[in-house]
Design goal:
Length: 186
């Protein structure tokens, strides 16, 4: 039986899980959320993860040594996967992505949050991966969402999101109506 994490404020989110790293889809939002959460080390993430490794701090990096991290976490967590980098942008090897998803499916005590601009590719990945060990519909502990604004292509992603074979889906407004000092202001 699924044991879901009770609804909590975003302040209860732990730091992200980085089985890979790349450019975040919404870097401004990620930085603001993490600053509000007090997770200041993540604001230096590109420098921290790639010191001396490359001139491009946002180039795709695989971290296979981190794949098993969720298996050793003692308490249930809500986790932003790869800091909001898009796992379906085509740069990540599908076999490695399947490893990540198999681990998330097996770790039912945690809730994993993924962002993508490519809902169509996410749906195709889930469909094709059914024959390779993933369930036909992603369990509720894997939440896949997309940032949306007011343009036609962005609004079309919402319709694609409705057909994604997942129990947990969300749309995230990428263009706030008015500036805010804090995402979590009272």
């Amino acid at each position: 039986m699924n044991r879901m994490i009770p609804r909590r404020s975003l302040r209860d989110l732990p730091q992200g899980w980085y089985p890979f790293s790349a450019r975040p889809i919404m870097p401004e939002l990620e930085a603001r959320v993490l600053a509000d959460l007090g997770d200041t080390w993540t604001l230096r993430l590109p420098e921290r993860l790639t010191a001396g490794a490359s001139a491009d701090p946002f180039a795709l990096r695989l971290w296979p040594e981190r794949l098993e991290d969720p298996a050793v976490w003692k308490d249930p967590r809500i986790v932003l996967v790869a800091g909001g980098a898009d796992p379906f942008d085509g740069a990540l090897d599908p076999a490695y992505l399947r490893q990540i998803f198999k681990l998330m499916v097996a770790s039912q005590e945690h809730v994993f949050v993924l962002l993508t601009n490519r809902i169509d590719k996410a749906a195709l990945f889930v469909h094709l991966s059914r024959t390779r060990g993933l369930p036909p519909i992603l369990p509720p502990n894997i939440a896949i969402g997309t940032p949306v604004g007011t343009s036609s292509p962005e609004l079309a992603r919402v319709e694609l999101l409705r057909h994604l074979p997942a129990r947990s889906r969300f749309a995230l407004e990428s263009e706030p109506a008015e500036p805010q000092d804090s995402l979590f202001s009272a």
